[in-house]
Every structure is written in structure tokens, then in C-alpha cells.
Amino acid sequence: MGVRPILALLAVLTLPLSGCAASAVPAESAMAVQDAHEVPSVAATTPVRTVKITSIKTTDATKGVLTVVGQITPAPVARSRVSLQRWSGARKWEEIGYGVTAGTSITIPRKLPGSIRTYRLSIGAQAPYAAAVSPTVRFSHYVYRGIFKKPLLAAGGKGHPQFNVVPVSEGPRRAEAEVLADKAGVVWGEVDTTGCRWVRTWLGNITDGTIRASLLNGNKLVGTVDMKQESETWLNRDILGVNRLRLQIADVKSGYGPIVAIDALLLCTN
Description:
The chain has 1 helix and 19 strands. It is mostly beta strands. The strands form 4 sheets. Strands 9, 11, 12, 14, 17 and 19 form a 6-stranded antiparallel β-sheet that branches. The longest helix is centred in the first third of the chain and has 36 residues, at 3-38.
């Protein structure tokens, strides 16, 4: 047998082997893809409960009632306890009140003194939900308080002025005073109104003639009213930004000088 017939025979024997090698690549690729689908990637999911404050406001400035309304989704078990918390001066969250849910809603009224604080709502864990808290809200809570809760900063006038604040044993509201001076005299007292935005002043003229009641911020007049003999009136004004308010009574025309009773409240965050 010559060389050419031997080479031809080898070529015939080699072709099937080459075909098998070529067909192996797609077969392996198909198997690899199939194996990947047989072991899918599974991401674990934990149910999430959301809490948020939808409203926060002072609902009674005289009594100091702060009302917080919130929403909890999904709805917790009926009458679930929700905590109202406030960031304290000790730099930690403290519970200042709580309420129970009705559906997804929660309403918590709380009687508090005036303040500027940060608040949040919190609910405990209920399977399958973990405990949750709301985003924080900072709020200015304005409440009425007696104008003399803080001592007078100064007092004076002319014509034997007397600015007599009713003692706490007789006037626990710290809102009352009686002021007087001689004929043609003036009497005044200054109070700290930092953090306050409104003054509500009742005045009773006890003298036998006309007096002029005024509110001043330094030398700037905030409000004034003339009062006839044995009359009463209100002198209410916006005092936002006024840190030192003067209450002044001056004689306009009387027989023996001004005598005026004062009952005044400030709307403050302190």
C-alpha cells in the first residue's frame, strides 16, 4: 500500500472525531445555563411597617394641650399601644404620653407646658413586623402663662410709682398686679417676653378719671388705649421678637392719680 492510500484512510478516520469535538462546546454551554436556572437567587424579604406623624398642633393654648396625630401602615392589631416620645435635655428619648390605635390612625393629646422640642411616635413589635418609629418632627408649642411668672426686670415711673405684683399665695396664676401713682404720675414695669408671641391684657381703671395704658418695646409703642373712670378694657398685641416688654400706666386727667388693676397673660414656648 502506497503512502497516498494510507493518508486518505487516516483522513477518513479523523473526520468523525473532529465533528464530536466541535459539537461539545454548545452542549456544555447548554448544560451550564440549565444548571444556573435550577439554582435561582432568592432574596429574603422582611415585612416593613411604617409610622409617621401627620399632624402636630397646639389644640388648647390655655390648658396647654398638644395633639399629635399619626398613621401606621399596615394597620396594627386594634387598640395597639403607641408611644409619644420627646427628645429630652438629657439627650435621650422619653415617653411623655401614649394612645391606642383605631385602624391605621392614632391620636394622642397631651397637656404640656410651652416648649420647642422634637417628637416622634413609636410602636412595639407585632409579628411579622419589627418595632417601628416615625421620622422626627420639631414643633413650637405655645401656651398661655401669667405675665409675672418670671420676676419683673425693672419698675419705675414718677409721682411715687408702685407696681405691686399679687403674691403667689393670692394669685398662683402669676398674672395679676395693681399699679398706682400720684396725680399726673406714671408707673411702669418691664417683663421678660423672650420666646413669647402674644400678650393678652385685661385692665380695670379704679381711679376717678382718665388714664392711658401702653405697651412698649424700648421706646417703640406696641399698643395703647385710654380708659375713662371706673371702666375696663383689653389691650392685646402681637409681640413676636420683643424680648423686653414694658407695661405703662399714665395719668391723663384724674383727681388723685392712676390706680389700675392688671390681669395679663403671655403666649410663650417657655
